[in-house]
Write a structure and sequence with these properties.
The complex is a heterodimer of chains A (about 550) and B (about 450). Chain A contains 15 helices and eleven strands. With about 550 residues, chain A is an alpha+beta fold. In chain A, α10 packs across α12. Chain B has about 450 residues and is an alpha/beta fold. Chain B is built from 16 helices and 15 strands. In chain B, the strands form two sheets. Chain B has a nine-stranded mixed beta sheet. In chain B, strands 3-2-1-4-5-6 form a six-stranded parallel beta sheet, with helices on both faces. The chains are: A alpha+beta (about 550), B alpha/beta (about 450). Chains A and B meet through α11 of A and α2, α3, β7, α8 and β11 of B.
């Protein structure tokens, strides 16, 4: 027989649940806007809502605050809404007991919206990005500690062998030292014991100081991105659109060059009108898009460039094994490299001066990370919208040179003139903004997940749309290729990748780097004027969906 | 400009019809597995990426197949492979812990549990594994090459004879033999589409393959590797395990030329070396070979294979005949032969180009064909041509390593057996590094290679 539990305490037990899960919608403003009942002040919370009781003291079975948490997730009235973090069984039981015990809500206690902290979503990235911490990150950590510092059982941030160093205990009044007190706690993984929580609390109260350059050794990937970010910041001279000039860069330690041309920021109409010959349904509805300025590579990335990334110099001596290696001596060496393909990936179509092909979107993303580390400029794939904006170059016709494909051969390699293979880059006329082979020759990867209905989701002018990938297929490629007929080279034409592009990869698991059956797909890179944060860089370079 | 003729009358359905007619005509008396609903038990020996891929393809054939046993020398490779296969084929993978065998002898136990075995270890082990699988009377899918030296090829040829006597079905991973474009092209060449084949050339020029860095494995293991462990991990770069890339990779192209010529070369001479492949993890193999092979009718094949980034690349085969030329890998025939012109109807358009959209992935097709033969008990044994193609490539290596002319008989009867007599993690492999970690490399004119 269990001892009778102590009565539920509103302030310490119920209030946090309501503040973190309910009040962001059930407050004065939302009540005015859409008639929701309020849970932020006692006088409102106990009023019936329409015909139902919100909180009927003593009767949880007649109280929406409890009842709606018990509806199936599929029910529209289920609370919290299904796309949000859900309550645990213990939390709903607390609500039920509190109401059953009379719903005691001390006078004068009002509730405010509090962000509910989810370790994986909110805390892990902060820790993995390393320091120093931004003010917002410190607030999030504080909140997390206030909410009991939940840490999923056994979850390690990164993959370090936990339980190495023991954290030094902190005496009352002592200043918390990051390296000896905090770092070992974070590296050991969770869940945290009370002493660890107390140390972290003290650390946050003292300003969560994270010495510059100290990484918690757990997530090399994030630490690396942070270092690349710092190198890029130090290298980014251009601040305004006026300062953006075309430039040619030599990839450090090589003789290989690539050229970038400035693309002015602006607005354009994305998609095609239903009257356009050859048009597909996924090209509509047309919608206005606003794009920030960026540079785009003048030509498609060639094998000369891509093979530098594919084939690192293996004749270098092995790094010392005593752990003294510091990758920051050459950041780019720390970026992961593709496995080497077993087959010859140009399929005999030529390499010197020809576009690189058959790589996965993941391969392009990591190439961008590698080139960024190498050069100190931030490079990434374009979004689908950025690509179409650059391709159109201010035009609204089916092709950037007009509506009639009869002149296509002056600008592009496609089925009619390609002799069944790709051709050297930059040998046809460019588009008005100086981009060569922006249509034809090889399809070009973009960052977006392909969704035929994506354009239907917009109202008004959209700024920098990006349909972030959640699955390995399909991703958008644009521009058409040497295999395609004229209609596939239209500015608005869209294509999604499919698993068939790897069907002849004889290995299991299939490579995340190569599409053995897509000798028509390549890419070109862009460099936005505005340098993103390290966390944003990670999103551009690591979509996390590369595995089939 | 090439005249390209797409023949709309030719479809994959016709092909299946033709080949199954042949198969039915050749069928033997009811044999080992008559029932299509019988579950075939599969064992995987050699659990790398390709072995796992081959197992996945075997598990994707028609009719019930179940993976019941796995063997590898490395437990981590076996575990990864098991995880990947289980994720892909949950219902068709049933390998309890006691059927996961680890070690140099593990293959024997795994083979014993199966009806069909997949042999996908590094090539050096193929001869003893094939011997054992045939001894145990199992059907086999084996990856290429089948051997890396003369004694190995002799063992495989003996196993081929034994397998025929036992009516075992054996598929060899030279998948071009199951690729529709090759089948149709070479059928036409054998029909005399370009007359007598008088000159051949083939290439596997690419940028090179993976390396497994010693320091990375040592870091992971937290201790130095024994030399045997290291070479088994980084097997591509050691002749006793891999045969050099002319054997491991270029065999595909040499095999196509043998197929076109319906025979094997009788002698070879050539040159090769190591121009850029000089790292500590590059073992002893060359990075380029050029070989001329002479066939019994006096025709010659020039063969190039290269593993150097940034060069002219091609993986292809081409032949010249008395009445025309053929890009075998591109499946294009340009012919002046009266017979051939008759077939396609017009002398002006005397060019044929194979195109069949949707022709099946040859890696899947080779398993579909093998398993169909097992279920229907039709003759199926690819070991002999596989052994001859392996020997051809080995003979090429002997020619480039030694710098001398090598005859087929010398190569086949070579006494140089690269396989160590005993295998354990502490056995020193046949080739060892010097103090700086570099391995001795063949020197043409000095090295005895045959």
């Amino acid at each position: 027989m269990l001892a009778a539990a102590a009565p539920v305490d509103f302030v310490t037990e119920v209030k946090p649940i309501l503040e973190q899960n309910c009040v962001s919608c059930h407050n004065a403003q939302k009540a005015k806007e859409n008639g929701k009942f309020r849970l932020d002040v006692k006088s409102e919370a106990f009023k019936p809502h329409k015909k139902d009781n919100t909180i009927n003291p003593g009767h949880p079975e007649d109280s929406l605050v409890y009842l709606n948490t018990q509806l199936p997730l599929s029910d529209d009235s289920h609370m919290p809404p299904k796309q949000r973090d859900q309550l645990s069984k213990a939390q709903t039981e607390t609500l039920k007991r509190w109401i059953a015990e009379g719903a005691n809500w001390p006078e004068g206690v009002t509730l405010k919206t509090v962000q509910r902290i989810n370790f994986v979503r909110d805390i892990q990235p902060i820790l993995e990005n390393g320091g120093p911490l931004e003010a917002k990150a410190k607030d999030t950590l504080k909140l997390w500690l206030e909410q009991g510092a939940p840490w999923p059982d056994g979850l390690k941030i990164g993959g370090v062998k936990g339980g190495g160093e023991k954290p030094a205990a902190v005496a009352a009044g002592q200043t918390v030292d990051f390296v000896s007190n905090v770092k070992p706690i974070l590296e050991a993984g969770g869940p945290l014991d009370e002493a660890s929580k107390a140390t972290l609390k003290l650390w946050v109260e003292q300003g969560a100081k994270w010495p510059d350059g100290v990484t918690i050794g757990v997530n090399k990937k994030a630490a690396l991105i942070n270092d690349i970010y710092k190198k890029i910041l130090a290298n980014s001279k251009e601040q305004t659109e006026a300062e953006m000039k075309a430039y040619t860069n030599t990839i450090p330690d090589t003789k290989v060059t690539y050229a970038m041309v400035p693309i002015p920021g602006g607005e354009f109409v994305m998609g095609s009108p239903s009257s356009e010959p050859g048009r597909n349904a996924d090209e509509g509805p047309q919608h206005k898009v606003k794009i920030e300025p960026f540079w785009m590579e003048q030509c498609e990335v060639t094998w000369n460039e891509y093979e530098l990334f594919m084939y690192p110099d293996e004749n270098k001596p092995a790094p010392p094994t005593d752990g003294t290696t510091n990758y920051t001596s050459d950041l780019a060496d720390a970026v992961s490299r593709p496995t080497k393909p077993y087959t010859e990936m140009s399929f005999g179509m030529g390499k010197d001066g020809y576009p690189a092909i058959s790589m996965t979107q993941h391969g392009c993303n990591i190439y961008c990370q590698w080139l960024s580390a190498k050069t100190g400029h931030f490079y990434r794939l374009p979004t689908e919208a950025e690509w179409e904006y650059a391709c159109r170059a201010g035009t609204t016709t089916a092709y950037f040179f007009g509506n009639d494909p009869k002149d296509l051969g002056d600008y592009a390699w496609f089925a009619e003139n390609s002799d069944s293979k790709y051709q050297k880059v930059g040998t046809k006329k460019p588009n008005p903004w100086g981009l060569y082979d922006i249509i034809g020759n090889v399809d070009q990867w973009t960052l977006d997940q392909y969704d035929p209905d994506y354009y239907k989701t917009f109202t008004g002018t959209v700024t920098e749309p990006w349909n972030k990938a959640t699955q390995p297929y399909p991703h958008v490629v644009r521009g058409g290729s040497w295999q395609d007929d004229a209609d596939k080279l239209r500015s608005a034409c869209r294509r999604g990748s499919t698993p068939d592009w790897k069907v002849q990869d004889p290995q299991l698991p299939k490579s995340v780097w190569y599409h053995t059956d897509a000798p028509f797909v390549g890419f070109r890179i862009i460099r936005p004027l505005k340098t993103p944060t390290a966390a944003e860089m990670e999103k551009y370079w690591h979509s996390g969906v590369e595995k089939d | 400009m090439t005249q390209k003729i797409v023949r709309p009358d030719f479809t994959r359905r016709d092909f299946i019809k033709t080949s199954s007619t042949i198969a039915a005509a050749a069928a033997l008396a009811p044999g080992v597995f008559a029932a299509n609903d019988e579950t075939l038990k599969l064992a995987l020996v050699g659990c790398g990426g390709r072995g796992s891929g081959a197992a996945s393809q075997a598990l994707s054939t028609a009719g019930p197949v179940k993976l019941v046993a796995m063997a590898d020398v490395f437990k981590d490779r076996l575990d990864d492979s098991y995880g990947n296969l289980k994720a892909q084929h949950a219902d068709r993978v049933d390998v309890p812990e006691e059927n996961k065998f680890v070690g140099f002898d593990a293959y024997k136990q795994a083979i014993a549990l199966a009806d069909v075995v997949i042999l996908a270890t590094p090539p050096g082990f193929r001869p003893p594994l094939l011997e054992e699988a045939v001894r145990q009377g199992k059907n086999i899918f084996t990856e290429k090459p089948l051997a890396v030296d003369g004694p190995g090829v002799r063992k495989v040829l003996a196993a081929a004879e034994e397998a025929k006597k036992k009516n075992l079905k054996v598929g060899v991973g030279l998948q071009r033999h199951h690729q529709l474009g090759y089948l149709e092209t070479i059928k036409r060449l054998h029909d005399g589409a370009i007359g007598d084949i008088t000159a051949m050339r083939c290439y596997w020029n690419g940028s090179g393959v993976w390396t497994r860095a010693r320091h990375e494995y040592e870091q992971k293991a937290g201790r130095p590797l024994t030399e045997m462990e290291y070479q088994m991990r980084n097997w591509y770069y050691f002749v006793w395990l891999c045969g050099d890339h002319i054997v491991e990779q270029h065999i595909h192209n040499l095999d196509v030329i043998n197929w076109v010529k319906q025979g094997h070369p009788v002698k070879a001479w050539g040159m090769g070396g190591r121009e850029v492949r000089k790292g500590l993890d590059h073992g002893e193999i060359f990075d380029h070979h050029f070989v001329e092979f002479e066939y019994a009718d006096g025709s010659r094949c020039s063969s190039q294979c290269r593993h150097i980034p940034g060069c002219w690349d091609s993986v292809s085969e081409h032949v010249v005949g008395s009445d025309g030329i053929c890009d075998v890998s591109g499946h294009v025939i340009r012919s002046g032969s009266p017979r051939y012109v008759q077939e396609i109807g017009s002398r002006r358009e005397a060019s044929w180009h194979f195109t069949t959209p949707g022709a099946k992935d040859p890696y899947q097709q080779e398993h579909d064909d093998l398993f169909a033969a097992i279920r229907n008990d039709t003759p199926y044994n690819e070991l002999e041509y596989g052994a001859h193609s392996s020997m051809t490539a080995v003979m090429g290596r002997m020619a480039t390593y030694s710098g001398k002319e090598i005859s087929w008989d010398e190569a086949l009867n070579s006494k140089i057996d690269t396989m160590p007599k005993e295998l354990s993690w502490d056995t020193p492999p046949p080739t060892l590094p010097d103090k700086e970690g570099h391995y001795p490399v063949a020197v043409p004119g000095v090295t005895v290679a045959c």
